[in-house]
């Protein structure tokens, strides 16, 4: 008898394990299919993602105008035009200083190369000028041999720039429509879904929207603080291109961890080329101090628990996103991970809720709300 019970328990455990394994395999298969579909539709998905990020950044202004009795179309138009003006101003702030200081920067690059050659010629390397010239000649020969590949890469780059401009234009139009008609989405989604989905899916969507907006706005504020403090430090040291470097620091803040490293490396490199090793080390110290303040003071205070992700999860998400999709993956890794956490928390909360009490057949239950009396269709 006992052996029969043990065998029955074993079969039950194996059956449950097989069912769970099948569910996991189905989930993985669905994930692969979804990723494949997203990849095939990336030319449409990418502008949509950009538009959503821009909408979360500009929605507070649109909401303020709509709250003061502005018509939705007028509020969306004003916010879109203001965004374009701000973007054009930022581009001007980056391009003009670079053009004005391009001569000084090129002279600094030449001087830096000469210093490197002088350092390499001395101990412990003792590399002679003939060896350097030979290496340069070899590099030039390789460039000549690769002229066809360079031309193809140039054409590909031009195509990428044109595609980027098209995506930017499409994202701006989508942002306008999101600002104008966004509040109608959840009621429409509720009407399209049956049963409990009409409650749970809009609730998860709203939480994801709040999380995405919290991420974008908090990253913008953190990036602004980084740009201001690092910009002041670069200005005090006397590094050229202070304004473009500050803007680069602000933009790079939207790519957690990786963006800060990239912007800091560019600033240190320009300081090394233009001002020398001492100022480069000072700039490096400034960037390290500001980044420590950001990670230990600014970001915890500003973001608080809005995303609900541990720093290790953020680092792993950025690393995985970068390995799968490059810069795009690094940019989207944290908000995607945060929204996955939102969905998981919602599902977990629903699964942990006690079973609803039995309801009289004469009443209809409206999802999680109070029972509502069923009315006669007549």
TrEMBL record:
It is a multi-pass membrane protein. It is found in: Cell membrane. The keyword Membrane applies. Its main location: membrane. It holds the Pfam family AI-2E_transport. GO terms for biological process: transmembrane transport. The chain crosses the membrane at residues 20-38, 44-62, 74-99, 158-179, 224-247, 253-273, 280-302, 314-344. Keywords: Cell membrane, Membrane, Transmembrane, Transmembrane helix, Transport. One of its GO terms (cellular component) is plasma membrane. Residues 354-378 are annotated as: Disordered. The keyword Nucleus does not apply. Belongs to the autoinducer-2 exporter (AI-2E) (TC 2.A.86) family. This is Integral membrane protein. It comes from Actinokineospora spheciospongiae. The lineage of its organism: Bacteria, Bacillati, Actinomycetota, Actinomycetes, Pseudonocardiales.
